[in-house]
Structure formats: structure tokens, C-alpha cells
Amino acid sequence: xxxxxxxxxxxxxxxxxxxxxxxxxxxxxxxxxxxxxxxxxxxxxxxxxxxxxxxxxxxxxxxxxxxxxxxxxxxxxxxxxxxxxxxxxxxxxxxxxxxxxx
Length: 102
Hints:
The protein is an alpha+beta fold. The chain is built from two helices and six strands; from the N terminus they run E-E-H-E-E-E-E-H.
């Protein structure tokens, strides 16, 4: 699966894509659970490490941006990427359509 953002792209294996989907889904669920507790001007950053991925969601009540890094195992490559507030929701929606539900 080919994913990308502003100025970068990388091909993920099915296992990497599923792990990314599941981790981002967990972060988005956490954000949904906390959104009613945030004041209008309050921001939040949520982080998760899972299966070699480090993921972060930076946002507020109105939306969020995403950052990810994949730490390489032996003989593998490292990945680092991000999506702006404008692109993050669309990316996660597309990822969920290709590989299940977020």
C-alpha cells in the first residue's frame, strides 16, 4: 500500500498498513472520548507506540494533525511522515476504507 503526505511517500506492507490503521484508530478513539472534556481553546497531544510504530495526534475540539514514525527492524527501512489538520481526517478515512474500519 502506498501512502504519502506533503513531499513524501512510502510503500507499506499489508502488516505495516494494518498496524498503522489499528494504532491511528486507537488514537482517534481516544480523541473522541476526550473531546467533550476539552475547553474551546484547549489543545491535546496523544501518543501511542505499537508494533514498531510511534504515532501522535495533535489537536483540539475542531480537528487534529498526525505524525508517525516506524522504527526499523533488522534489514528494514525507517519511515517518518505527517499529515496536516486538513489532510489527516481524509487520510484516515481512506485507510479505513482500504483495510477495514477505523
